[in-house]
Every structure is written in C-alpha cells, then in structure tokens.
Amino acid sequence: MKQFDLSAMGWDAFHALSVTEKASYFDLDGRPYNVIVAQQFDRARLEELGTLATAIRRVAKTEDGMAFLARQLPHKRAMLYFTQPSSRTFLSFTAACQILGMPVGEVRDTATSSEVKGESREDSVRTFSSYYDMLVMRENLGGLAEKMAWVFAHSDRPVPIINAGSGKDQHPTQALLDIYTLQRSFENRGGIDGKTIVFVGDLLRGRTVRSLAWLLANYRGVRQRFVAPPSLQVAPDILDLLKRAGVDYEVSDDFESAIPGADAIYMTRIQDEWDQPGQKPLANIERFSFRVEHLQRMRADAVLLHPFPRRQEIAVEVDRDPRAMYWRQMRNGMWIRAALIAEIFGRDQVIRDYRKT
Length: 357
Ligand code: NCD
What we know:
- The longest helix has 19 residues, at 326-344.
- This protein is globular.
- The relative contact order is 0.15.
- The chain is an alpha/beta fold.
- The strands form three sheets. Strands 9-8-7-10-11 form a five-stranded parallel beta sheet, with helices on one face. The protein has a four-stranded parallel beta sheet with strand order 4-3-5-6, with helices on both faces.
- Helices cover 37% and strands 13% of the residues.
- The N and C termini lie far apart (41 Å).
- Helix 8 packs across helix 9.
- The chain folds into two domains: 6-169 and 333-356, Rossmann fold (3-Layer(aba) Sandwich); 172-331, Aspartate/ornithine carbamoyltransferase (Rossmann fold, 3-Layer(aba) Sandwich), CATH 3.40.50.
- The chain has 13 helices and eleven strands.
- N-carbamoyl-L-aspartate binds at residues 88-89, 165, 171, 174, 207-208, 268-269, 307-309.
C-alpha cells in the first residue's frame, strides 16, 4: 500500500481519523490533489502557491501570456456544483478555469438536478465524475466533500475534488486567498511571521476563519485575536488545534481595544442563515462593525480584510482608505485558484518556466 492511499482505506477507518491525520490522504504523490481541508497546506506549500499565483498574474498581463495560459488545460473539464449561494467563489473559480482554458459546467440548484427524483446526493455527485475531470463543490453539509473524495477514490474515475465551502466547517480556498493577500500585504514588512491578526464577528459559524486560523499556525510568532460576543466565539476545536500547535491566541469581546495592535483585521458578517426559523438571534454584532472613525485607531501599515459578502460590518466610506484590502483580496482569489488548479494538474512548472523566458 502506498503511504496515505485513500483508495486503500475503508470509510469507517478513514472517517474516524482526526482532521490533521486525514489531510495527507487528500494528496497524491506528495502534491495537493483533492483540496478538502486547510490542514493540507504547510508553509512551503503556501509559499509555492503564492509565487505561482503571482507568476500567473504577471503572465496574464499580456495577450501572448493569456493565450499561453489558456493552452494549459483545454483538454480538462471542470464541474462546479454549488448548492449554497455564492457569488465570488463561484465566479472566481469559473474565471480561474477560463484563464487556464478549462471548459466549465455547473449545477447550482438541486431543484434542477435528479435529486428531485429521489436520487441521493452521493449518486448525483458521482454522476459529475462521469463527464468532468475536476469537481469544485460548495455544500451546506459539512463533510460531504470529504466523503465524495473517498467515494471517487474507490471508483474508476477518481477525479480531484476542491472544497469551495463545506457547511460551517471549512473553506480552504478562501483561506488560501486570504494568506496570499497577507503575503502580498506584508511583502515589505518581513512577511506574515510575527504579525497580529484580529478576527472579528461571527467566529462560531464563519468557516473562512476556521480555515484561516489553521493556515496562520504555519507561521512563526503570529498572534491570533478572536473578537466576538461570547455566543459567537470561535469553537473549542479550533482553539484546541491552536493550543496544540503552540499558537499565541486570545479570545475577547472588546473590539475597540483590539484595533491599535492589529497588523490585519479580518471582519466577518453574522451567519444568521444557520439560525432556526423563529430563533432569537444569538447576538447583536453591531458593535463589532468597522466604522470610519476606527481608521485612525488602526496602524498606518495595517490592512483590513473581509471574505465578503458584507452587510454593515464595514462602512462603505472605509473602502477609499488604502488599507482596505477586501476588493484586492477578492481578485487574489482568482489568481490563487488558477494556481491551485494548475498545480493539481501538474502545470505549475511549465508556467514558472514561461516566466523565465
Ligand atoms: C464566505 C463563505 O461562503 O463562507 N464567502 C465567500 O466565500 N467569500 C463568507 C460568508 O459567506 O460570510
């Protein structure tokens, strides 16, 4: 048996592993293949992916470069299965595929698929692998992407799966674009090492924070501050992972005093789509909003991030400030996703070589 061979593992044994133990089973030959959890990415991978995203971004600036990129994967087709609402993740994956010349198919509503005829979600998803060479999926069920990666590995078409958001659990590619944004923002300040990152908002149900908190544990001396009302604080499983990784973290509900010490502030919206109908809101997060007057409390070289969509957590007037990074962050998502897909299909080296010519 190859080391970490998903196709040789039974479901129950695999399912029982911890998230860190599972991570290596999603790789193939030491590279990311299925991208399911943030735990698959160590520092070396994050740096490699960031430089590849930058190479793609630069190559894409010329017509010849764009034509070269579009010749990389025209022989592969991507399926985007998004049964939860999405604008940015869906469109940036579509654009990333288009950059690499990959044709794209989509299902965005189970009401238009055979699931309404009683087909199981697993059969539906497996059907996609009959026609496509890669599956990008967003789902409100945590764990389905992982299950499908296992199902595919046991089928005769083990096409790669990318998790584009699984329930309240993980959103690894958002965390990759967040890291890429931080890498670029701190390029002239010694990188991400030693920085203080402040997370604000609904940290209990915000999957982007859960994935990013883990990726940040790959860097030296990063301090993580989780600022939220107690009922929306980050879940104990994440704090436990951070504790075991020796990360300096702090939990608080005092937004105002967290601002001046931050190198990056990561705002999030309330995730009230998870509330039961008629349920009383878990908390009012109005005082966890970034207003114009907060700009002067913020360091001159700090950055403000948000995975978007936003509601009122960041005042629109803040957008004009050069430290407001969220629109650039969004565009970074397209480059990092193109880099990830190029890497999955082994096109990374040829793209790096093009840069050298
Ligand atoms: C996030 C998500 O879907 O988890 N959106 C995104 O992908 N940029 C954040 C959110 O919905 O609040």
